[in-house]
Amino acid sequence: MENSLLLFPQLNISASKDKPYYKVMKPAIKEEPHKASKPGAKQKRNRLSLLLQKPEFHEGDHLDKPGNLTKAASVSPEEAGKWGESFDKLLSEKAGLDAFTKFLKTEFSEENIEFWIACEDYKKSKSAHELLPKAKTIFETFIQKDAPKEVNLDFHTKEVTSQSMGRPLRSTFDAAQSAVYRLMEQDSYPRFLRSAPYRGLLQARPAARGPPRRRSRSFTASDFQGVRPDLAVW
């Protein structure tokens, strides 16, 4: 105790008696704050794993697999085979249109089918006052120079379409739509039919079911009535 008083004269004896020694010394010890540890390799892997689980990171993944070509998992090989009869047949069916759109996304040319769909919707307008705002949206999105989804049109077709924007009709985009349709039919459609995902749909077959299982018969005492005892099998 005398040694401690010599080293720490500011401490009195009563304080040391009432409180344990380590509690008296504690204020004199300055603890250094913990430094923030950098994330290790394991933490980084965990964060990356969580990030890859988000839906936006899986959109378009594994597009070469047949099952991801179309959401309609129930598409039969016979139905998929009809898509190869003609380009019009492909676009006339919802599952076929969806599958072709997904295929164009892999080629970064989905603006063509989006423009074609927009034109189809435009022609279904019920009143004349609906045509102007729809026509303006289509023109600014797909046709005008440096449009965000500009489609490939020749100068003459683009000029004719531009001139009719003052008073748009239901036929305003007919020439442009036909040009894009021919482009897809002659260029993208043959590649779609040769693609591995489409061939996978043609080769898909439902799992073969085995022969029906025969049910065993349960015998009762009545089944043996009238049977000679020496011939009965036990």
UniProtKB/TrEMBL annotation:
User: Alphabetically, which GO biological process terms does the record hold?
Assistant: negative regulation of signal transduction
User: Sorted alphabetically, which SUPFAM superfamilies does this protein's record hold?
Assistant: Regulator of G-protein signaling, RGS
Q: Which residues form a coiled coil?
A: none
What Pfam families does UniProt report for this protein, alphabetically?
RGS
Q: Cite the entry's keywords alphabetically.
A: Signal transduction inhibitor
Q: Can you give the residue ranges of the RGS domain? A: 86-202
This chain belongs to the protein called RGS18 protein
Q: Which organism is it from?
A: Prunella fulvescens
